[in-house]
Amino acid sequence: MADNEPVDPKNYLEERCKPQCVKSLYDYERCVKRVENDETGQKHCTGQFFDYWSCVDKCVAPKLFEKLK
Q1: Are the C-beta atoms of residues 22 and 55 closer than 8 Å to each other?
Q2: Which of 8-12, 35-39, 48-52, 53-57 has the lowest mean pLDDT?
Q3: Any residues with CB less than 8 A from the CB of 26 and at least 6 apart, and which?
């Protein structure tokens, strides 16, 4: 990659924000363990997944938009 190409800071910021959302991640991982043996396919962890990424996004957004000015 050339040195003059722009770099998307979003991935870096997400990695920096993930430790702040460890409770949501823990809740999601607990849910995955709880439903992994579900034979019916009715159980899911969509809510916990979105809670985790919502937390990460709330942390990333102000920092990302600050860089876009």
Answers
A1: no
A2: 35-39
A3: none
